Amino acid sequence: MPTPFVKIVEVGPRDGLQNEPFPVAVQTKVELINRLSATGLKSIESGSFVSPKWIPQMAGTSEVLRLIDHKHGTSYPVLVPNMKGLEGLEVLLRENPRQPVSEEIAIFTAASETFNKRNINCTIAESLDRFVPVVERAIELGLRVRGYVSTAVVCPYEGYIEPEKVRDVTIKLLEMGCYEVSLGDTIGAATPRTMERLLDVVMAAVPIEMLAAHNHDTYAMAIANVLTALKMGIRTVDSSVAGLGGCPFAPGATGNVATEDLVYALREEGYETGVDLNKLSTTGQWISSILGRDNGSRVGKAWLARKKLQ
Ligand SMILES: CC(C)(COP(=O)([O-])OP(=O)([O-])OC[C@H]1O[C@@H](n2cnc3c(N)ncnc32)[C@H](O)[C@@H]1OP(=O)([O-])[O-])[C@@H](O)C(=O)NCCC(=O)NCCSC(=O)C[C@@](C)(O)CC(=O)[O-]
After folding, report:
1. Backbone φ and ψ of 158, nearest 5°
2. What ipTM was reported for this prediction?
3. Ligand 1 atom closest to Cα of 82?
4. Which stretches make up the Pyruvate carboxyltransferase domain (predicted)?
């Protein structure tokens, strides 16, 4: 039987860096993205066209997209919350139509009204209305559109979220034209049981190939949750190098499952990812030291320590 392939969507340069307390230089972001693409990762979320007043860390996304080495076969998605964000990306696309910029955008909403209001300052219904012209225009421009549903299991303000709410928002995003929806356990409070319940309900209405898992690791449950999702048929998983990140509107939440932890778990469990764990661990250690923070990947640290002995 062929080894099952899992696509990893690396979100470190976006989800990871959006929560750093100090500005991260454009050159550092560019180097991070280039290093990540050299590990074999094929989808690297590279920034956001959101309001710099709301998320100052993502200012400079245009510059980042201009400066990175666009590797053939690798996509560099960016978050876009509204038409103004898409117009920011369009400026770049027009600048030099022959130069690659980004092939994909991601729109994002939530299954919890309170979180959505804090995150993008509107109701869920308003956000979905707002996305319709964004998706239409993006598709006209030849961009693929991914959707996110945050607080898919627990909301920091409202508590446990019924999976039916997540299912309904997911269906709307797919009907609008998203090719895939990533289900965000924004505060990393899911467990294999709640993850399974979520997927049972959503998968009953949506083809599994159109879903991705986006698990934060706040309660150290992310690997267990991802493995549960994989057993249920999910084949696209989001992760963040060195476990960077969190969400500015989800107090206390830590970053996504670390990409190093994910790659190690997947290879030991018999999945193929195409990612070089040596290069990845070195990159995770490098960005952690640049940011002056502890490396959030236990696998990354263990892997580098083991390499020193060899
Ligand atoms: C959505 C808005 C813009 C609404 O913000 P708003 O204040 O309601 O928007 P507005 O239309 O009233 O505009 C206010 C100002 O923002 C400007 N503006 C308006 N739009 C843009 C734009 N696109 N780019 C740049 N500027 C923009 C606009 O021009 C205006 O400027 P002013 O006149 O005051 O100078 C705001 O709430 C926002 O930017 N939020 C950012 C949210 C965010 O990035 N959150 C983190 C990412 S989501 C996440 O991490 C979860 C995820 C995806 O990882 C999954 C998971 O883990 O669950």
Report:
1. -110, -10
2. 0.98
3. 23
4. 6-281
Q: Choose which residue among 9, 18, 48, 51 to substitute to test ligand 1 binding: the one with the highest number of ligand atoms within 8 A of its C-beta.
A: 51
Q: Position 99: which residue type?
A: Q
Q: Give the whole-angstrom CA distance, residue 62 versus residue 9.
A: 20
27 within a domain of the structure (yes/no)? yes
pLDDT the model gives residue 2: 83
Q: Look up the CATH number of the domain holding residue 44.
A: 3.20.20.70
Q: Is 290 a member of any domain?
A: yes
In-domain check, residue 161: yes
Instruction: Report how many domains make up the chain.
Output: 1
Atom nearest to 119 CA in ligand 1: 42
The answer to the question of residue 103 being in a domain is: yes
Q: Domain residues for 121? A: 7-309
Beta carbons of 12 and 41 less than 8 angstroms apart: no
The residues facing 236 across adjacent strands are 7
247 in active site: yes
Tokens 């690791």 label which residue? Answer: 217
- pLDDT above 90 (res 1): no
pLDDT, residue 114, reads 98
